[in-house]
Amino acid sequence: MDSFTNTERAQVLTEALPYIRRYNGKIIVVKYGGNAMVNDELRQQVMEDIVLLWLVGVRVVLVHGGGPEISELMTKLGKKPEFVDGLRVTDQETVDIVQMVLAGKVNKTLVKLLGKRGGKSMGISGMDGGLIKAKMRNPDLGYVGSIVGVNIQPVMDLLEKGYIPVISTLGCDEEGNTYNINGDTAAAYIAGALGAERLIMMTDIAGVLRDKNDPSTLIPELTIDDAVELFEEKVIAGGMIPKIECCIDAINRGVESVIIMDGRVPHSILMELLTDEGAGTMVVKNKNSAEENTK
Question: How far, rounded to the nearest angstrom, does the alpha carbon of residue 70 sit from its chain's CA centroid?
Fold first, then answer.
């Protein structure tokens, strides 16, 4: 940026103005995790992006995971992480570790980083205010939860008071049991309950690729019908299947559009929201929705 002249900097800001106007006052949910979270430089840039959006009037909600940090602490405590179909086997000891890492270390670190950059944020978990109500998904997995309901009022209260809500993906049931909730699923439910303009899902790949080994085959836009076809063609496969299912779930719950993007790309959130170029793959309900989201 040092190579830019003042005129060029002004031009960049001017070109962002229509997008700032479009998203001012709108709710954007960011699902944050993966390598963008554990890489310190990228984490700093993500926090800068979120604070900038907040400062120009976007109502940002940050939903985060923390899988690598959970596995790291488990290993330090002599407990081997186990996964079945991508879900962490979570016994009572493990769910205590998950709670310590997500609601404690990770959540409060993100709140601190946002504050350091001038943002006003508040960290909560899905257990606070009955935000995420859950039940046991499969006894063989232990305290891995399925969401049975969302009380979005705590998040709305924070937004109305001008805070950036920072939410860790834990849930609980009426008996007080704590559950580890999949971050993408939690983000879809929360974004849907908020009627968010957009859900941004930060991942470790560029988006949906027609050829998984060729980044140049990125599919910039998908309707739900397109996604169903790509499921059948096995283009959407492996770990991308549950992500796209969460995208579709979010849209069916009322989110205008969902973006799957590479969180390892610096300032990818700003590229998506404030430039013509965009970033990643946008999933929408139908072609009419696509036209509305690209205007």
Answer: 18
